[in-house]
Amino acid sequence: MSDTTLLPNTIQSVNPYNSKVLQKYEMDAHERVESKLQGAHEAFQQWKEKPIKERTRLLQNLSHSLEHHMEYLSELMTQEMGKPITQSRAEIQKCIFLCDFYATNAEDFLADDIIETDASESFISYDPLGVILAVMPWNYPFWQVFRFAVPTLTAGNTALLKHASNVSGCAFAIQKLFLDAGYPSACFQTLLTDHEMVDYLIKNDKVKAVSLTGSETAGRHIAKVAGESLKKAVLELGGNNACIVLDDADLDTHLDTMVNARMQNTGQSCIAAKRFIVTKGIFDEFLGKFTKRVKDLQFGDPMNPATEIATLAREDLANDLEKQVQDAVQKGAKVILGGKRDKAYYAPTILTKVTTDMAVFKEETFGPVAPIFKVNDFEEAISLATDTKFGLGTMVFTEDIDKVRKTISRIPDGALFINELVKSDPRLPFGGTKASGFGRELSKEGILEFVNKKTVYVK
Ligand code: NAP
User: Fold this and answer.
1) pTM of the complete model
2) C-alpha–C-alpha distance, residues 325 and 339, integer Å
């Protein structure tokens, strides 16, 4: 069972499915953090000089190592944060794809960019910055770290990771993967540390930039500390994506995608469909089919490959979700399905009669809750979809793609997906606008976030 008598400076990993303590960890003392920082700083001096071909060769090793340890890593992830095992395997598979993508493309992305001017030669050179601090969340404990670390290290930087405090096992497993792949020992290091130490590190001269994936609250804090230190920050924060379903949507083809858009990872995804906005002509059919499919989702032991929906990663998260649903019900929402909690489990929930003053509309819901709105037409759908402080992505399901194409400039988000759920892909840039943060990960854009884009001019 979870241990309420934790010693100071200790954190633990608890299996949210059965509340068993998996492991306790002593947090790094200040001197240890200093020594890891010094190590990362020194490693950078050597690492930045390595030819790009050597860095991409190590990516191939990393990819093989992930493949080789797939089962162990997937089980570790499932035990620490409760993700169904098939989804953990898919996450490791995606990390392999990422390594392979940058192993093939990084050399091109980082090559000097020649620009014709009146100089005899002028170009942009992409130089690494130094030690980059990463502060990461638990919801995709491997993917989030890999999509930061792989391009950042390949560009010649070194990295320090402060992972979420409930997934320290994953954090150490990732450190070991880099070591086993042949990266110099201080190139990628895990720190077990608290929020105050994150501030200290951001302010330290040896740390050149910070990347946070996490909540808006954490984002506002880290942006402030980084801003005061004039340090570059990439912020990947929360989202409140709308999933617009228009009258002519092909439900037979896309229903599973729509369900997945909300329920995958038990709803704990920044880019999940958090508000369904459905036009009136298809509303009843959508609600009926969607409800049936969600009702059929199999809950159970996340280690069982048949399990589709699991507990949330911690009981306090289920508690927060319960409060948001209660707020909606008090304000008049109708519970079509679910609406119940049992410790860390929150039953997949569908709400109708939702209004814009409810927390489930205004805030991010980080769990399997689908508020569904009925609207008259596409215009009304767009105006509701964009009525949010967040800006990660919007999805639209329709057979009239040209109609949506005409509205691209009216969607102020980082992504617009048509007939597909918003998802990350190593080949495409990923990131948000407004309170969802700034900067981009993945693709060429991502590898150029933590480099000095230096202009070189030869007369
Ligand atoms: P969180 O509470 O903000 O924590 C994320 C990380 O930030 C953890 O390592 C946490 O450390 C650390 N942290 C929190 N407050 C901090 C502070 N004041 N100073 C320094 N570090 C701080 O978020 P979460 O609950 O783990 O993750 C869910 C959130 O992440 C959601 O909002 C989700 O939408 C967002 N997310 C965004 C993306 C994206 O790409 N846009 C992707 C995935 C998740 P501790 O664990 O020690 O508190």
Assistant:
1) 0.97
2) 7
pLDDT at 267 over 90: yes
pLDDT band at 316 (very low <50, low <70, confident <90, very high): very high
Establish whether residue 138 lines the binding site of ligand 1, counting it when its CB lies within 6 angstroms of any ligand atom. yes
- How many structural domains are present in the chain? 2
Judge whether 47 and 54 are in contact, CB under 8 Å. Answer: no
Spatial CA neighbour of 335 closest among 356, 349, 315, 314? 349
Considering the domain architecture, whether residues 55 and 162 belong to the same structural domain is answered as: yes
pLDDT tens per residue, range 396-408: 999 999 999 999 9
For residue 448, give the nearest of 37, 154, 64 by alpha carbon. 154
- Ligand 1 within 6 A of 192 CB? no
Q: How many CA atoms lie within 13 A of 339 on its CB side?
A: 15
Closest Cα to atom 26 of ligand 1 = 137
Pocket test for ligand 1, best of 160, 213, 423, 445 (most atoms within 8 A of CB): 213
Please check whether residues 246 and 232 belong to one and the same domain.
Answer: no
Cα–Cα distance, 158 to 223 (Å, whole number) = 21
Q: Is residue 231 part of a domain?
A: yes
Same domain, 181 and 43: yes
Alpha helical stretches, state H, 185-235: 195-203, 216-228
| Type and span of the H or E element at 1 | none
Q: Tally the C-alpha atoms within 13 A of residue 404's C-alpha that lie toward its C-beta.
A: 18
Are residues 37 and 152 part of one domain? Answer: yes
Clarify whether residues 20 and 154 are in a common domain: yes
pLDDT tier, 409 (very low <50, low <70, confident <90, very high otherwise): very high
In DSSP terms, 160 is beta-bridged to 133, 189
pLDDT of 18 above 70: yes
Q: Alpha helices, DSSP H only, in 240-377?
A: 251-263, 280-295, 315-330, 359-362
Print the domain residue range for 365: 241-425
At position 382, the amino acid (one-letter code) is I
Residue 3's pLDDT is 55
